[in-house]
Every structure is written in structure tokens, then in C-alpha cells.
Write a structure and sequence with these properties.
Blueprint (H helix, E strand, L loop, with lengths): L3 H32 L3 H69 L5 H15 L10 H12 L5 H8 L24 H6 L1
Amino acid sequence: MPDAAGTIERADLILDELARLGLSLARDMAQRAEAAKDDDQAARLAMAFHHVSRSVRQSLALQAKLAHDAQRHLREARDDAQRQDKTRRELHAARVRSGVRRIIGAEAAEREHIALLSRLELALLSDSTDADFLEGTVERHVARLCRMLGVRVPDAAAQDTAAPAADPPPWPLPGHVGPRPNPGPSPARRSSA
């Protein structure tokens, strides 16, 4: 199946050639109509000129529409990518915010909560626009922000900064057909039953 960009490029080249040929033909018809000796021939040539010039205008209009549509599609794709990126960043920031708030609630003195939460929001506004914000795990951001805020980092959050968690095995397993198996009782239980 041909790609859309190639199809549009070919259509643009064809329309360009049609417009050039039509314009050349229209010029020829106009000259012949002006030079015609008899009114009937001049009228036929004028009508032919009208049809050819209309075809040229339509070719140019279609070319302009294709260019406009291509620009619109590029703009929409860019806007969609930006919306998706913004949504991912907002979701990631919300998860980080939730984790840090939980730790602030558990570890910080109550009188410090408002000041710490305000500083957290400012830090998240800045961090969430960084190019690598989405690359770091939530736990890693939580631990870093807690350290920056001067809040004790619980061991579970600090451990994740050392090494990222292992990915779960892929499912379905290669070569497996059917639903995920139920582990059921262990072999030892089955033999005693």
C-alpha cells in the first residue's frame, strides 16, 4: 500500500503539470480567439478557453487544498503528541506528588506540612518540564524530592534509587497458547491428596 506522503507528492506533481499544460493551452486558445476571422470560430475558441482556464483554476485550487490539508495534519499530529506528553507528565507528577505527600504526612512535623507541600509543588512544576522527567521512576523522584525537602526518606523509597525494579516476565509466555494457567496446589499437596 503506498504511503500517504508519496501519494500526496505524486498528486502535487501531476496537478502542477496539468496546471502548466492547461495554462499553455489557455494562452493558445486566447490568442487564437483574438485572431479569429469569423465570429462563430471566435465564440468556439472563447468557450474552449473558458473550459481550459476553469480546469487550470481547479487544479490550482486542489493543489492549495492538498498543501493546506498536509499542514493541518502535521499541526494536528504535533498537537496530539504534545497533549499526550502533557498528560503523561501530569500523571507522573501526580504519582510523585502522592508519594511525597504520604511521606511528609508520616515523617514531617505537622507544623511543617504546608511549607513542605508548597515547596513540593514548586519543585514538581520545575521538574515535570525537564526532558528526562518521564525516564525516572516515581520512587526515584519521591526519594530525591524528599531529600531536597529535608524529609527523611523511608527505606523502601531509598532502595529504589539504587536499582530499578525488575520487569515482570512477559505474558503470554513465548509458545504458550490459551489462558494464563492457574498454579493450583503444589506438587507435594497433590501427592498427599
